[in-house]
Amino acid sequence: SGLKSLSFAEIVLFIDTVSHFLFNTRKATTLSWRTPPLYYHAMLNHKVHNVLFRSGWKIATSDLNFHLPVTDYSTFRTQLAGSKRKELNKITRSETRFEVATSRDAMREIYDVIKANRQAQGYPMTMSAEALLALKDAIKDDLIFTALKRDTTTLAGAILMNIDETTRYVFYWGEHPDFRHESPVVKLCEHLYLDAVAQGYRHLDIGISTVNSVPNEGLVNFKVGIGCEISQKLTFTLSAQDNI
Hints:
elongated, 10 strands, eight-stranded mixed sheet, alpha+beta
């Protein structure tokens, strides 16, 4: 909309004004700008990258972001790798169900499953359950806790954030380590996709698969296997000395 039509001169003015304020009034020594993945508001994003580069900002990290374009279910099925389709078919026969958590206890249970999954793979949780619940209080319906369940067991969970009217972001997701052999997160992904279709979202953002630009090959292959598209997510920095 309006963002698309921002001119290069307007973007330069904004970036220069903010940079000048932070360096001269706030006495910052280095600025860091983590830009969105390139698919997101692509026209504006490409313009901002160009302006930052021409203004002397340097690329500090080049991460790889993955998202599912949300269209229809047949497209979702078609884009799945053969092995992922088999996993999906198998777990679909086992009578699972999709739930959106409404109670604090249910939200904590989802958090705990995701935490256990990350710990089993050697990754920490970057936010505590308390911090996420406080965020839920702050942004209400724009933070959603979801679960794939069988009977009373949570097989996989996801915490989603609505970024705007077009994009829903998978903030965290993971499967219970005891059920990982069933790949329940693929079934959960199907539900998340269908829910995004029903609610009119155009992108389901699955996040980056890099740490300080270094790709996690297994994670990359998994996300490509469920049909994700890849886009760059750059971080730019500018030091006070370079800005003189």
